[in-house]
Amino acid sequence: MDYFSKQLSIALLIFQFFILFPSSAQSAASNNSNLFREYIGAEFKNVKFSDLPVNSQVEFHFILSFAIDYTTSSSATPTNGKFNVFWDADNLTPSQVSAIKSKNPNVKVALSLGGDSVGDGYAYFNPSTVNSWLSNAVSSLTSIIQEYNLDGIDVDYEHFKTDPKTFSECIGKLISTLKKNGVISFASIAPYDDDEVQSHYMALWRSYGHVIDYVNFQFYAYDKGTSVSEFLDYFGEQSSNYDGGKVLASFISDGSGGLAPDNGFFTACSRLKSEGNLHGIFVWCADDSKGLGFKYEKQSQSLLAISH
User: Fold this and answer.
1) pLDDT value of position 29
2) Which of 33, 92, 127, 281 is 20 to 30 A off residue 305, Cα-Cα?
């Protein structure tokens, strides 16, 4: 084989190698996402969709907080799947949803179910039976979602008066039905590191993970003062628990827990991005961020918008 033929053979081998084994940087980038999500409306601080900066280079989800299957009376009681609006409906109206989506084609709006509390007590997941709860939930949520022109749901129940299997069947069938009916295009869950919470959400994940698009894991529920290395360890642990899921990084804007945005959160996110594991960022919550001028929302979106 002459010199030219040898060189050509070597070049072909190198070309084949790169086709078969793309660089780790290319592989990593392909798994990252530009998804940014923010909970809004739970604390009645008059925050509006239009208050938030929206970077046109990200996919932006507002998550209305909350819709709860309790009565709206002062002594709230469970309604077995008949959901009512509990967010700041004076400032976050159907017309405001339409306006923000019209102005920003990259914006979608979802609602979150449950939350921590209602009235003066906890908001419990408390179905009578799977079928009766499911029927009521599909009907009431379809009505709210269509009235507000929403795109998806998030599940954030944190207290339970039923077993994990019942929770799994109720929520899994709810998501499946709403998707099949064309009512929603995406769904997420919002667990955190608590034994009871994890037992319910991991049961749901095992049976219905295929219909859940995002895992809004509440990393800010870990202790305040979490370090970058601890955060990355937690992220790895929860990515294993929700194997195959798009687990999002998260912070709480008042800095009361987890890895704070001014104490290394963005360093951790950059590390995840370099490894191809940054599936998005979500924030609790716009109500608190308003007083900070949404500076961390801007920083989050800038990081997500970078293509490499």
Assistant:
1) 58
2) 92
Q: Do the Cβ atoms of 209 and 244 come closer than 8 Å?
A: yes
Q: What is the number of other CB atoms lying within 10 angstroms of the CB of residue 95?
A: 9
Q: What is the pTM of this model?
A: 0.91
C-beta contacts of 260-266 below 8 A and 24+ residues apart: 260/224, 261/296, 261/299, 261/300, 262/296, 263/225, 264/227, 264/228, 264/231, 265/231, 266/299, 266/300, 266/303
Report the relative pairing of strands 281-284 and 152-157 from DSSP bridges. Answer: unpaired
Determine the distance from the C-alpha atom of residue 127 to the mean position of all C-alpha atoms in its chain, rounded to a whole number: 24
Average pLDDT, stretch 229-256? 97
Provide the pLDDT for residue 308: 55
CA separation for the pair 231, 98 (Å, rounded): 37
In sequence order, the 6+-apart residues with CB closer than 8 A to the CB of 107 are 49, 54, 60, 61, 62, 100, 101
Q: Which residues are catalytic?
A: 158
Tell me which residue has tokens 């790895």. 236
Q: DSSP string covering 104-166, please?
A: -TTEEEEEEEEESEETTEE-EE--S-HHHHHHHHHHHHHHHHHHHT--EEEEEE-EESS-HHH
Number of residues that this document lists for the chain: 308
